[in-house]
Amino acid sequence: MFKQYKLVIFDLDGTLYEGTDHFDYYAEHLKKKVIVHKQLDFQRDYEQMKAGNHSVMIGKAYDIKEDLILTIDPMTLSVTEASKWNGETLSIEEVKKKYQEQLSFDFETMIAIGDGWWLPFVCAKHYGVEDCYSSYVATKEYMVSESFQLEPLPGLNEALVDLKTQSTIVLVTNSDADDVNRLLNELQLRGLFDKVITSAEKPTYTSKLFTDLLEEYQASADETLSIGDNFINDVAPAVLLGMDGVYIHTENNQEELHKNVQIVSSVMDCFSKS
């Protein structure tokens, strides 16, 4: 898979490690902030989200102010459908009136539900939780504690070392520097990347960051690959720049999203196809 690429860009969370226990920990931490008589409703909704039986799901967006779940075109970021929490959909006319422009994600009022971190967050916001960040920090601390076992993907270290002999490899993540250093240590990946960009604020700045990397490493778009588990953050911006993308989707049952995008269930699948 990597032979033609001069530059390969990796996401971190959900890409270079797997597992979902930390999402459940995050949800449990947030649930405690929900008003007591609504906590069972929170838990029920979160479990339905994980099972794919809720209107909130990965790949959609959430308008916090309007409490609406939005179906979007990931390439244009335009809204194609909007539904209430109970699944009731708005009319086409209502959708067009409310969302005339492409979405801009500020993660305060408009959320791109790109991966498993956002399911408990959106659920908490629906139930009136104002402070989600402290729960996120607590979850990241849990992830580097003895109580949490973050298992390195077998063979990933060796595969990246081998990839470095032919390509520049860069890590671009929304996690902050301290979290990234701890995670890379746990994953036995520290020191492998030619460049590490933390607190990237994807998807807001993805296109600019990728454009800067193309210039810095003198790589053309068709010589560059972006790999991540968040289509909106990592893949769509790359494809719009003319790059190729690999979308990591654990169920691996998505229809073809774009001719320049491959769908895999694990980052290790990329190396097995090399």
TrEMBL record:
<dbReference type="InterPro" id="IPR036412">
    <property type="entry name" value="HAD-like_sf"/>
</dbReference>
<keyword id="KW-0378">Hydrolase</keyword>
<dbReference type="InterPro" id="IPR041492">
    <property type="entry name" value="HAD_2"/>
</dbReference>
<protein>
    <submittedName>
        <fullName>HAD family hydrolase</fullName>
        <ecNumber>3.1.3.-</ecNumber>
    </submittedName>
</protein>
<dbReference type="Pfam" id="PF13419">
    <property type="entry name" value="HAD_2"/>
</dbReference>
<dbReference type="GO" id="GO:0016787">
    <property type="term" value="F:hydrolase activity"/>
</dbReference>
<dbReference type="InterPro" id="IPR023214">
    <property type="entry name" value="HAD_sf"/>
</dbReference>
<dbReference type="InterPro" id="IPR051540">
    <property type="entry name" value="S-2-haloacid_dehalogenase"/>
</dbReference>
